[in-house]
TrEMBL record, chain B:
<dbReference type="InterPro" id="IPR006764">
    <property type="entry name" value="SAM_dep_MeTrfase_SAV2177_type"/>
</dbReference>
<protein>
    <recommendedName>
        <fullName>S-adenosyl methyltransferase</fullName>
    </recommendedName>
</protein>
<dbReference type="Pfam" id="PF04672">
    <property type="entry name" value="Methyltransf_19"/>
</dbReference>
<dbReference type="InterPro" id="IPR029063">
    <property type="entry name" value="SAM-dependent_MTases_sf"/>
</dbReference>
Length: 652, 267
């Protein structure tokens, strides 16, 4: 037999079955099945018998193995595999690696459970040759070879599948982690750059945006790019928020954010929510301040006067600080700070709802801040001293007293007058230690003059509002007098009308206590503050000082000597006419002048038993006129400029 | 804004995951030790529970072939699990090579695995989404890219509705899915019931309580209620291995009785 002959050859040929190389070498394919099936005389029976065999094979594996392909499809697959095994067992030359591929193909057909392999090997061993009608005595040994190869191919394919699956699921796990990490990172990034309430970009995001606009200005050419920033917040927001409660307060902010968002979307502005009631809009490609002002105007119009929150009509008005400048030269931090400063100006000025940043005003404020910050150290270093300006008895032009005037010997700015720093000291509270220090200097100086002559000058020292508010002031003054040995009647303390009115009852108590010490009290700048005359009868004052302003327009001679009709109406400037509803319109304009007021005030002072001093006397004519009016003391450049203590000593 | 969770759900492989456990029931290898230990405990609670999973998978294959024969070429497989043995796109394409499939799962690992397998397939993909938010699925950009909801579509909800408690309104979810589909579309579902094996299923339910997706069985009438507004194709709601079985029936394991299946047509 030819088949037997081939088998003999095959058996004599040594084969190293099972290695992948040998599988590829012996590429016996389905062609072998057709050859086997086409063996004359045996073909019909063989196919019929294998149908029965493959049915048994399929039943054996389906009882223990889930067949995703379904039973019918799996049975067809198994029948094909059975035919390939029968072909292989009779093929010349014999090639055991066909068994390897059948094992691998079982796995590929998802017939891959360990039990399926066991059942398959048992069934093949028990029935394949008999069912195929193969009777050659060498075929059992060949079948054993094929089964060995089948087991190898099956397990290798299964191992590959398991390893691939394990690697796949591990990669999937890593990929899932990575995706989650990216997602978390994105959420974190978003959270860091957006306001939690409104979801709008926050301050950090705005700074990034500004930085990118500055670094890469969106214009052509970039050097000509400009940008505008409008910072806004709501008037009285804190009070509104407190009265609404946090939930409705947040709803109000959301309503504001919605309107601004719509505006920003429509006009292409960048909108940020810096927190609380503070929002910012950035406009790119502005051409000048007007464009940024237009944004502010749009903002103010976008917010209605009243907003409905939870059925309540909430009055809402916004205010805007506007900054506009070339993008390339801007610094994001500085831009935002300028907008903040401008918004602060608007907040303290009730006449306007928006303002444009003013570099000069800012520079002045910066200088004030620097001066304020330098004051405590300056006080410690003794940079504050006093100058003294004579207070002259007009009747005989003798020295009655001196006003002590604060001076700051600033190491860089030179000598600064009180106008430059007293209000700053008041704002920080430094005025109290500074005031006491200067008071002590003045008293010590006056005590020294007292030893020089029989009629020593008194010293007049200004008191600030904050000092007057301090109930401990009288005791402090008493201690100073005690330490310096100055009799109280040689000390005059000057207070303004406003100080008395602003500080209320406390200051009245303090003034009485000071008067009880025997100290003289003077009202400084009398008649210029917003006050009533009622206090004149309530407080223990000794004198009033009229400000230099009362000398404006004071004629050299009494007006009685000039007929009123000779004064041409044009000579009365509009500014000199007192305004206000209380102005006596029936009085001729010429008589509503200092020519009328000054004599009346001097008479008033004298009628109340007060000494009257006039400040700011700059000419001999003024001095003469005031002397004629009976004014007690005079002060001014004409009578003596502020000077050193040594100069005063010489006068004494 | 929600407080960020630093360990996202579903990525901790030391917690058993139902998608990977299902893969192991079917004899797959896409699972971790925790999943295999979980399946071992389920098999102790109810020996042969794997047969129910296998019967469910076989039902999926028959249902997809039936839907392809009914002319459906678009499939939205929600709760698809690990794309492993007998995938929808493979089954559908045996007779309809132009079939398009989007797999949806809540498990990020299953989705990541699906995306890797389908990376080179222009007509199939896998997305992470939550069945409880059907609008997000129907409006998902990748879904809209692959599926045309003006054409008949089959939404597959295989062994997933029992993970949706009544408090999440499963009937409403199904209604919203149904209303998003063209007339002549289909919903195919399978669901765990406890008409038989009541005690065993209760123990299995307790085991699933320790996963991220606790489940609950529903009575056949409750399952039927979920399908209101759909015309069920014959044989209606049956145990899954009785739904249009192949001419060569698989072994009818009694445990498979806990899985009910049905296919409904939208009006």
């Amino acid at each position: 037999m030819e088949g037997a002959h081939q088998m003999t050859q095959s058996r004599t040929g040594p084969r190293s079955a099972g290695t992948p190389a040998s599988v590829e070498d012996g590429a016996v394919t389905s062609g072998a099945v057709e050859d086997g099936a086409a063996t004359p005389g045996a073909a019909g029976d063989c196919v019929a018998d294998l149908a029965s065999f493959s049915a048994s094979w399929e039943r054996a594996v389906s009882s223990t193995n889930f067949l995703p392909a379904g039973r019918a499809r799996s049975r067809a697959t198994l029948q094909g595999l059975a035919q390939r095994l029968v072909a292989a067992v009779t093929a010349e030359p014999f090639d055991a690696s066909a068994g390897y591929r059948v094992g691998a193909d079982l796995v590929a057909a998802d017939i891959s459970s360990p039990r399926a392999l066991g059942h398959s090997l048992t069934l093949l061993h028990q029935r394949l040759l008999a069912d195929a009608g193969v009777t050659d005595e060498r075929t059992p040994a060949r079948l054993a070879d094929l089964c060995g190869q089948l087991a190898t191919g099956f397990t290798e394919a299964l191992r590959d599948r398991a390893l691939t699956a394990a690697e796949g699921i591990n990669n999937a796990e890593r990929a899932a982690w990575r995706d989650k990490q990216y997602a978390l990172q994105a959420r974190l990034q978003h959270a860091l750059l957006h306001d939690q309430l409104t979801g709008l970009p926050n301050r950090s995001a705005l700074m990034r945006r500004l930085a990118s606009l500055v670094a890469d200005p969106p214009a052509d050419p970039p050097s000509e790019a400009r940008l505008g920033i409008v910072l806004l917040n709501l008037n009285r927001f804190k009070a509104v928020y407190d009265s609404l409660g946090p939930t409705r307060g947040d709803q109000l902010l959301l309503a504001v954010a919605r309107r601004l968002r719509a505006l920003a979307a429509r006009e292409g502005y960048y909108l940020a929510h810096l927190g609380g009631d503070e929002f910012a809009l950035v406009a790119e490609r502005t051409t000048g301040t007007d464009d940024a002002v237009k944004v502010a105007d749009q903002v103010l119009r976008a917010l209605p006067e009243r907003m409905s929150v939870d059925g309540h009509q909430i009055p809402v008005t916004a205010r805007c600080g506007v900054v506009e400048r070339p993008a390339g030269r801007a610094d994001p931090t500085e831009l935002l700070r300028a907008a903040h400063i401008t918004l602060g100006w608007v907040a303290s000025d009730h006449r306007t709802r928006w303002m444009v940043f003013d570099a000069e005003r800012n520079a002045a404020e910066v200088a004030r801040h620097e001066l304020t910050a330098a004051m405590p150290a300056a006080l410690a270093r003794g940079e504050f001293t006093l100058a003294y300006q004579p207070l002259v008895r007009l009747a005989d032009r003798t020295l009655a007293g001196v006003e002590a005037l604060a001076r700051w010997h600033h190491p860089e700015l030179g000598v600064l007058g009180p106008a430059r720093f007293i209000s700053l000291a008041e704002s920080t509270g430094l005025i109290e230690p500074l005031g006491l220090r200067l008071l002590e200097q003045a008293c010590a100086q006056a005590a020294g003059w007292r030893r020089l002559g029989p009629a020593p000058p008194f010293v007049s020292v200004n008191l600030a509002v904050a000092q007057l508010r301090d109930p401990g002031l009288p005791a402090a003054v008493a201690a100073v007098l005690d330490r310096t040995g100055l009799p109280p009647d040689l000390l005059q303390l000057e207070v303004t009308e406003n100080a008395i009115v602003d500080t209320g009852d406390t200051s009245l108590d303090v003034l009485h206590a000071l008067a009880d010490l025997g100290v003289r009290l003077a009202i400084d700048d009398f008649g210029t503050g917003y006050s009533s005359l009622a206090y004149l009868s309530e407080i223990p004052i000794h004198s009033i000082k009229l400000a230099a302003g009362f000398l404006r327009g004071l004629a050299a001679v009494p007006p009685e000597s000039v007929p009123p009709e000779s004064v041409p109406p044009e000579s009365v400037s509009p500014e000199s006419v007192p305004s206000g509803a209380l102005a006596p319109h029936t009085l001729p304009p010429a008589r509503r002048s200092n020519d009328t007021l000054v004599p009346a005030l001097i008479d008033l002072g004298h009628d109340l038993g007060l000494s009257v001093t006039v400040e700011g006397i700059e000419t001999a004519v003024q001095a003469e006129r005031l002397t004629g009016l009976g004014c007690d003391l005079g002060q001014g450049f004409h009578l003596g400029r502020p000077t050193t203590a040594d100069e005063i000593t010489r006068l004494v | 804004m929600d407080v960020l969770s630093w360990v996202p759900d579903g990525v901790d492989v030391t917690v058993p995951n139902v998608a990977r456990a299902y893969d192991y029931y079917l004899g797959g290898y896409h699972n971790f030790a925790a999943d295999r230990e979980f399946v071992a405990r389920v098999e102790v609670a109810m020996p042969g529970f794997s047969y129910a999973a296998q019967a469910n998978r076989a039902f999926l294959g028959r249902a997809v072939r039936w839907l392809v024969d009914a002319g459906v070429r678009q499939f939205l497989d929600i709760g698809s699990g690990i794309p492993t043995l007998g995938n929808v796109h493979e089954v559908a394409r045996q007779s309809a090579p132009d079939a398009r499939v989007v797999y949806v799962d809540i498990d990020p690992v299953a989705v990541a695995h699906g995306r890797m397998i389908l990376a080179d397939d222009p007509y199939a993909t896998s997305i992470e989404a939550d069945l409880r938010r059907p609008a997000e699925i129907l409006g998902h950009p990748e879904v809209l890219q692959l599926l045309d909801f003006s054409q008949p579509t089959a939404v597959l909800l295989m062994a997933v509705l029992h993970f949706v408690p009544d408090s999440d309104d499963p009937a409403g979810i199904i209604a919203r899915l149904r209303d998003g589909l063209a007339p002549g579309s289909y919903l195919a579902i399978s669901h765990v019931t406890a008409s038989t094996h009541r005690r065993e299923i209760e123990q299995v339910r307790r085991l699933y309580q320790h996963t991220l997706t606790p489940g609950l069985p529903r009575a056949p009438r409750q399952v039927k209620k979920l399908l209101a507004g759909l015309d069920l194709v014959k044989p209606g709601l049956t145990r899954v291995d009785d739904w249009l079985p192949d001419s060569m029936r698989a072994t009818r394991h009694p445990q498979a009785e806990v899985m009910l299946g049905a296919v409904g047509r939208t009006r």
